[in-house]
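COMPLEX REQUEST
Ligand: FVH
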Amino acid sequence: MPASTHSPVSVLGLGMMGSALAAALLKAGHPVTVWNRSPAKSGPLVAQGAHPAAAPADAVTASPLVIVCLLTNDTVQEVLDSLGDTVAGKTLVNLTNGTPAQARRLSEWAAGRGAAYIDGGIMAVPQMISGPDAYVFYSGDKDAYEAHRTTLAAFGGTKWVGTDPGRAALYDLALLTGMYGMALGVLQAFALVRTENISAEEFSELLVPWIGAMLTGAPEWGRAIDTGRHLTDVSSIAVNQAAFPNFLTTFRDQGVSPELFEPFQTILDRAFAEGHAADGLSRLADLLALKR
Ligand code: FVH
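STATUS: Structure written out below.
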């Protein structure tokens, strides 16, 4: 039986993201019960109509669907351990950032107590919640997901990625890995231009289209990685390996730490030494795979 679009929902955790999620549920018309370790954070939501719960177990008792958004999954486990048997028959949707292994363990914990578990990875900052560009990866209990999908749509797009509870965290971490890689490059570029008193903000006008243009090559790298055919006529390991010392030397000459970029020279050197000189940079993804 699908849940009503206005069925009660409880939210555990009212940090920046949990508060945004609770506000989105209220806006969508759900009765919302909220709990936070520091009770003062529930104030603005209570003013919008949320019911405050004194303890996590009280919040869980109030609704069939419980959204959890705390700092870490260790914290989540601590809070869940306080729930006693209130969790039986409930659906837990954990939107806390964590690892695939943690998600699988939490799913087993829930199954052992008669609860359905869905893990999620939020691809948005709090201000984007409910907006057109926000979406969330979900994985785990498919029936529970289908039952509550309409409610979860209050946060933004819903992307189901499979019944392995760890899968949503993997997608989340993989996309964030791309973001952090981009951030490292952008910050290093800013640090470099600042050594000559060039405005970082003005330089960003060059950086943004450049990175955008370079990113259009990602599907081609993806194809090379999927097929194992890395030979390139665009930009070889050999040419990048020969040029990269110029970057490390310039960072040092200009007084910028090369620490974020030295590992890139290391893996280029390894690719070259292992006979991949004629391949494109896509080859590096293969070399990054550790033997398991
Ligand atoms: N903010 C963002 O942009 C990102 C977007 C993508 C998803 N992340 C993840 O969401 C989780 C929560 O992030 P947040 O931004 O809400 O974080 P905070 O504002 O710092 O709130 C943290 C909440 O966790 C509670 N908490 C911390 N430790 C404990 C504990 N030992 N026991 C119970 N609750 C705890 C904290 O409570 P309090 O400090 O207010 O009492 C907040 O409710 C996170 O996984 C992001 O990676 C956000």
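REMARKS: The first strand starts at residue 9 and ends at 12. The chain has two domains: 9-163, 171-287.
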